[in-house]
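INTERNAL AUDIT FORM
Audit reference: QA-55
Scope: verify that the stored structure record matches its stored sequence.
Auditor: D.O.
Record contents follow.
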Amino acid sequence: MSVIEIEKADNLGAILQAFKLEPLNDSELLKFYNDKTMECRTGDMYVSPMEDLFEECTIPMTANAHLLLGHRGCGKSTELYYLKKRIEAAGQPVWIIDFELEMNVFQANCWDVMLAVTEGLCKIADHKKIRGLDSVLELVSDYLRADREVIKETDKNIGASAVFGAEAKSPPILREVLNLFSSFKAELRANSATRDITKTKMERRASEWISYTNEIANKIIGKLKGKQPVLIFENIDKIQPPEKAMEIFHYHALAQMPFPIIYTFPISLYYDSGFSTIKDLYKPHILPMIKVRNIDKTENFEGIGAILDIIGLRADSGLFDSEALKRLIMATGGALRDLFSCIISSARRANRRGADRIEMQDVRSSLSQLRSELTRSISQPDYPKLANIYRDKKYKEQIEDSQFLLKQMQALIVLEYNETRWHDLHPLVAEFLMEQGYIHDSNR
């Protein structure tokens, strides 16, 4: 996460920081968060997946597990950080776990998630100065140390006054466990033998670990007079291959913690036949894209206006030629990450040629790069099916080949929009297929 707080850009150089791709921090959210996008996403001012999550996380429940699904770059991270602020304002502690940063997404399994859950609770206990956990933390420490040789560097750090983010006045056993978690995760990433031993042990002794986790959670809830902690797993939807998420989330314990947990989840797997068993365990919430076109290909003025507002919060309007900015918005199809990335690329180019604003030539260059990235993931046998998604309204709403859809959604070739569920090609892919002669459309 960026350590430099962003300010509204008043020159091309400042755009690079103003449109950073990392989530906004607390003070940045106050300046740059646009709370008027949800109606553009859902088509109904009274429907909001994030409002649903807020209400369900702030109402005490025994088991309260959620999946947040949405395309890469649709704004999930920003929405989750804003949700964190709201839940904290309601008096509940929240910890966000960046799973991509904490674990190896190419080797992840359900035990990695369980470890992260328990560590997240320990960090909340540290932050909220929860006492009375010594006995269960001793058991956690013994469990982690068993069947492994603790590296000398870790032993040297344990008991230090301030390590791995633990507060200096935290109980020694809590600091020790937080140190142990950090070194243990590093060892899991680097040592396949440790990973195999841990997997085998946790499969055999899963009930012990779950009981420790539940005891820590219940102690926190008791000390906070019934206020439940909330864990948010960001970037867990980046597990590779995405199908591995099915295997991980079939582990029932992840859905049965005595406090709310929100996991991001690959939206492409929503169409996998196995998802029906997942949604019986977790409550799914879909964060839709912001529509810039309607299903009949007409422009969606509300969606375009919402994106213009997002950009206007971050940069002076004079830094963009208006037609060039409109082109950027329409060509990226409501994918905010793609839009921000292209704005940065365009600003770099404009700055290097000595201009004081982004113009169409800069936009063409950045969109050309993005189009190349997208079209490299499709092959000629895909072209007719993709063209059919673009042309046929009925096909937009129901694509029979779910495996084809899953593959294309993973690559962001096909985007999903909500109001009534429908799909469309990424605009740059549609333009490519027009050039190849598979689509004939005078309105695009």
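Auditor finding: record pair retrieved intact. The first strand starts at residue 64 and ends at 69.
Action required: none
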